[in-house]
Description:
Largest sheet: 3 strands, antiparallel
Number of strands: 3
CATH topology: Arc Repressor Mutant, subunit A
Strand content: 15-25%
Shape: elongated
CATH class: Mainly Alpha
CATH architecture: Orthogonal Bundle
Amino acid sequence: MEALRELSRNHVLGNPVRLGVMLYLLPRGRVLFKELLGVLEVTPGNLDSHLKALEKAGYVETYKVFADRPRTAVRITEKGAQETSKYLRTLRTVLNQFNHPT
């Protein structure tokens, strides 16, 4: 059950929206804010709040991209990729323990 305690200690990734952001970013590296809005189906203010929490933890960086007009992009950091992968491994361990109790 140590793995379950470890999951509960990660307050950043324990939130479904923030975990969704990280899962979407993990294979892509970076995406536009608007793309995340469509995928996660949350309000701009809600997404902004979650991105700020992820930025504060050092998991993502937001920045402006200038093309036809300024857009906000979100990039996963090395720390964010490592912590998300670690969280997923721990989650898999917990799920395996429940599926195959010893």
